[in-house]
């Protein structure tokens, strides 16, 4: 379909991994900060009022703060700060620093974090170097927020945070790239005999046995049920999404401690979306057309509803990766 080798600049298929790397770095950066949720007005739509949360929100740092605590004002202050700590947050952003506001800077010294050939999990169509991409500069970009700096990624710390946990990426190829990148960043610390990577239909599971942890990817390019749900054989030309039906997929998301959703590119057909009212098994398909924005909004609402009923904001964390660049030659 696409030329394997290209000297085209900017628009080459290899833009894929570039975009993925950038997007992933953003994600990791964001994971580091506890106040990301303020961008989204707190983790989930409806949070219990503050007086409800006071006792339930005890996180690990709070327990440390209390250890040997003597009840003085500083201790109270620290405990209060820790009580607001979101699950899986590491460190704290300096007050007033918006990590989403900044720019990409070229970092010759500190990037890349891993070399393509060190990671056996990258899909062949994304191994730019193996396919002869001559330049390496695309691996050196780093997100620099205005007014503060992000702590460097620490794979040991991340594995410790994931101990006994299930981290799940759900979405399209962009999120698959994020997922693979994260596995590439972590797998070096895990001996060969203690890790595995397996695929069960739409679900791919990387297991870190010594940590009793999994990092997983679930293919659902529209999040809702669609005719593109087969991870290998999917129809791109005639996309049909089934209303708000996410249960078929969502039953695989139950029990995740960290969920990272994305969906965007697959909606960008430039045409109205075809929405199936009945089921894909029905012989006579009841299909209506909707404006893309309306259909997208409808599905996101269904996902949010699922998140609210199935995820606990005190113990789990949900991310949504927003729009992404296209990654086709003429996209
Ligand atoms: C990474 O995290 C581990 C575990 O918390 C810590 O012991 C180590 O010092 C950290 N490394 C760096 C470079 O900060
Ligand atoms: C492993 O993690 C799961 C949660 O993902 C937990 O239910 C289970 O008890 C853990 N097992 C051990 C041996 O820690």
Provide the fold topology.
Layout: H1 15-31, H2 36-39, H3 50-56, H4 60-66, H5 73-83, E1 102-106, E2 141-145, H6 155-161, E3 166-171, H7 173-186, E4 195-200, E5 203-208, E6 213-219, E7 240-242, H8 247-250, E8 258-262, E9 273-276, E10 287-290, H9 292-310, E11 317-321
Parallel strand pairs: 3-6, 3-8, 7-9, 8-11
Antiparallel strand pairs: 1-2, 4-5, 5-6, 9-10
Helix pairs in contact: 1-7, 4-5
Bound molecules: 2-acetamido-2-deoxy-beta-D-glucopyranose (NAG) (2 copies).
What does this structure look like?
By secondary structure, the chain is α/β, with parallel strands linked by helices. Helix content is 27%, strand content 17%. The protein has nine helices and eleven strands. The chain has helices spanning 15-31, 36-39, 50-56, 60-66, 73-83, 155-161, 173-186, 247-250, 292-310, and strands at 102-106, 141-145, 166-171, 195-200, 203-208, 213-219, 240-242, 258-262, 273-276, 287-290, 317-321. Strands 4-5-6-3-8-11 form a six-stranded mixed sheet, covered by helices on one side. A hairpin with a 2-residue loop joins strand 4 and strand 5. Helix 1 crosses helix 7 (173-186) and helix 4 (60-66) runs antiparallel to helix 5 (73-83). The radius of gyration is 21 Å and the shape is globular. It starts with 14 loop residues before the first helix and ends in a 10-residue tail after the last strand. The structure holds 2-acetamido-2-deoxy-beta-D-glucopyranose (NAG) (2 copies). One 2-acetamido-2-deoxy-beta-D-glucopyranose is lined by residues 154, 156-157, 160. Residues 44-78 are annotated as: Disordered. Residues 48-67 have a biased composition (Basic residues). It is found in: Golgi apparatus membrane. GO terms for molecular function: xylan O-acetyltransferase activity. InterPro entries: TBL, TBL_C, TBL_N.
